[in-house]
Design brief:
Elements: H1 11-21, H2 40-49, H3 65-77, E1 81-85, E2 88-91, E3 95-96, E4 102-116, H4 119-125, H5 130-140, E5 143-155, E6 166-167, E7 174-188, H6 200-204, E8 216-220, H7 223-226, E9 242-250, E10 262-264, E11 269-271, H8 272-313, H9 320-336, H10 343-366, H11 370-376
Antiparallel strand pairs: 1-2, 1-7, 3-6, 4-5, 5-7, 7-8, 7-9, 10-11
Helix pairs in contact: 1-8, 1-9, 1-10, 8-9, 8-10
């Protein structure tokens, strides 16, 4: 043992000093596109659409024909990167993901009918253009979509990190992972103003002729052409490849742009005050966890040393209140010496103790001498993880 320890030194002080000598030698693109500020209507609509693109399977049947045609051609050239924020999906034509393409997979033909009667249903089903359709819904009382689905275009790989993108990708948030295709008609309900009469079963094969006058808001594809589809098709039937719905996959590695006065906390934009409070709580919790672990390690070290002291003296260790008092005193002194440098060695000594005996245990705990520790530890004397001076295990603290 060190010359600082003698046989007359009480054993709690000895284990504290021994623990104090335990040490190890050496220590040795941009963000999401800027939010459209200053437009209250957009901000309100964006909130109803799910903020920063939380709905990942939006219908696009209400898109203008020119936009739908452009997207169809882009899907044929390779993976499509988009900015999806609030109620807006923007195809980034000059941004490219690593080499990849879409494969067509046919399915058993299906028909689907969506009826929209409330603004909540409108935003849930058509978030991308809901803000422009609210007036039409209010006038018509009901909006309907009849669809025939025959297959999907699917990307072989749908997860990308934003750092992998190439080109002008400012504001990129998602890639198009898949797209449903077929034929559809989008039209007003019976309460709508008189418009073009529509035979609903002609659109998607739903099986009943409509006698009401309906205004067709948009349509694409031919339901009759879809009747020839099979699950083994490698391409959709001619005139039955209209885009119906997109499936979007969020890019990894994005730190969203938050409003002034707020920051991203890993899952949402929060106020600076809340972020500071959350960060402080996390630091306090980490410190509390380390303190609890240090207390447990110190208690185990002291328990082993108590057994060794009793064995050396040829007596049994104390019990009851005497045991608790000595353990508390030893633990209080020893836990101060346990930190990020000494904790791993302390765990090793505890794990090895049953097989190495008391002498080897004390050697394990002692570690290098204090001078070597001070030379090896670049943070010697600096505050430790709890803001206290880092004595290391090799210098007796000033109690």
């Amino acid at each position: 043992m060190s010359a600082l320890v003698s046989k007359s030194t009480p054993w709690p002080a000895r284990i504290a000093l021994a623990a104090g000598l335990l040490a190890l030698a050496g220590c040795n693109r941009k963000n999401v596109a800027e939010r459209m500020l200053g437009d209250p209507a957009h901000e309100l609509a964006a909130a109803r659409c799910g903020g920063a693109g939380q709905m990942l399977r939006p219908l696009i049947i209400e898109w203008p024909a020119t936009d739908r045609a452009s997207l169809e051609s882009r899907l044929r050239r390779g993976l499509v990167v988009v900015r999806y924020e609030g109620c807006v999906v923007e195809v980034l034509r000059e941004c490219a993901a690593p080499a990849g393409s879409y494969d067509y997979l046919g399915i058993t033909r299906k028909s689907d009918q969506i009826t929209i009667r409330t603004t909540d249903e409108l935003y849930a089903n058509m978030p991308l253009t809901a803000v422009t359709l609210e007036a039409k819904l209010a006038t018509a009382g009901e909006l309907n979509v009849s669809m025939a689905l025959v297959g999907n275009y699917e990307a072989a790989r749908a997860r990308f990190d934003i750092s992998e993108l190439q080109g002008r990708c400012e504001g990129a948030t998602h890639v198009v992972a898949a797209a449903q295709v077929g034929a559809f008609a989008f039209y007003t309900g019976a309460a709508a103003e008189v418009g073009t009469e529509l035979e609903v079963e002609k659109v998607a094969g739903v099986g009943a002729r409509s006698t009401a006058s309906r205004e067709i808001l948009n349509h694409d594809g031919d339901a009759d052409a879809c009747l020839g589809s099979t699950p083994t098709d490698t391409t959709p039937p001619a005139e039955c490849g209209a885009l119906l719905r997109l499936e979007l996959s969020a890019l990894d590695g994005i730190v969203p742009t938050c409003q002034p006065g707020s920051v991203w906390n890993g899952s949402a934009c929060v106020t600076n005050q809340r972020a500071a409070s959350e960060a402080q709580q996390a630091r306090d919790q980490a410190k509390a966890t380390k303190r609890a672990e240090n207390q447990e390690i110190a208690w185990q070290l002291c328990g082993i040393q108590m057994q060794c002291e009793a064995q050396r003296a040829g007596v049994l260790p104390p019990e009851g209140d005497a045991y608790q008092r000595q353990m508390r005193a030893c633990t209080a002194m020893t836990s101060v010496m346990i930190n990020d440098y000494t904790r791993p060695q302390a765990r090793k000594c505890i794990a090895d103790a049953p097989s190495i005996g008391c002498a080897a245990f004390e050697t394990c705990v002692m570690g290098p001498d204090s001078d070597a520790d001070a030379d090896a530890d670049p943070d010697f004397g600096e505050p430790d993880e709890f803001g206290e001076p880092d004595h290391g295990f090799g210098t007796e603290p000033d109690w």
